[in-house]
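Ticket #4471: structure export looks truncated?
Reporter: QA, pipeline team
Priority: medium

Steps to reproduce: submit the single chain below to the structure queue and open the exported record.
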Amino acid sequence: MNQPLRILIVDDDVDLSYLTRIRLEGAGFSAAMAHDSKAFFRIFYSFRPDLLLLDVDLPQKNGLALFLEIKKMLVPKNDTSGKARFPVMIISGGRSGAVQALFKDEGIFDYLCKPVEFETLLEKIKKAGDFFSACEQVTD
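Actual output as written to the record:
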């Protein structure tokens, strides 16, 4: 039997994070939460997520700064594409096309604007899981 996809929710909105975690767990995923960058790094290394749901507006470091740090950790040094081989989906209240384009240029998997319908989120998570699972099979 396959292990459930592990999803780390990084959002300073505690109530929304909790609700998202409960709904994801109800859908068969394993989920954890971090509400700032310090908690993110602690939880990231212990939980070892398969997917990140990342908000843009975070205390300490904004989502872009955190994503760029994550990308440095996850892109192999000999990889010239600059794309993380790890799915990161931005879920933010910000609707700026320029911000969305910046994240997409940096290699995020998807950018969703809050509020996000849970069924839409599930579809995107499945696509991310399928895509990166197929990539692992090709590179293994």
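Status: closed, not a bug. The export was complete when the record was re-opened. Leaving a note from the reviewer for reference: The two ends are 20 Å apart (CA to CA).
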